[in-house]
Amino acid sequence: RFSAAWDGGATSPSQGPAPEIPKFQTDSRRRVKLRSDKPEAISGGKMWTFSNGARVIFRKTDADKGEFHYALMMPGGYTYVPGYKPGQGAFISDMPQLLGVAGLSPSEFRRALAAEKLTMDTRISLTELSVSGKGRSSSLPFLLNALLQFTSSCSISDADFETYKANKIARIKAEELASVPVNALMDSLMRPSYHDADRAVASRLPAKLYKSFEAYLESQFRRAADGILVFVGDLDEDQLKKELAHVLGEFSSSEPSLT
Question: 10 Å Cβ neighbour count for 248?
């Protein structure tokens, strides 16, 4: 199926070497300093606050030998997409799988990550945008570079969206020919004005939805430091702090910098 093939980003020997993610050129003048290092009760780890307001939760674990998990979580879900209308959530939640990064197509970006044993899953819900995954501890610098490129240069091509749109509409029409679930039928009779965010209806798919989604991401990532970055696993604490001091300066915040 189209969705399985798109989501999977499977590789084959004929694809050759994995593409390279360009090196993000950080500005040394934006380097941040660690301002606060406190215990974090919920995770059992530590909460670090940097001079630009960026917050990081870190917990070292012995169970994940040689590996780590990460997540960038930001408030503001799909209702923040410009022009959002009820019933479009089912399509907006599909948009992350179409994102190319730093001149790489979606599949090329996934192949580049996979070559470093890294995963990256972007999800958008009613209330939150999250970018999460896992990888080898030695791939931390590679991941941070990929995150910088992702938050600064992700986009959806016209061709990829048109392919998605055609396949999505075809799938919706095929499903409409099947029997209607009892719960959905009851909802349509009792609450005709209610739009289930998880139920895709072809008429609710705007022709330029991907452009609105790109504008949403640009707005979100413009204040990426307002979110929370989480690292859990087998990482050296001092190395992580050092790497973050260089990287987090590229994340802006809606709050004034700490002094």
Answer: 28
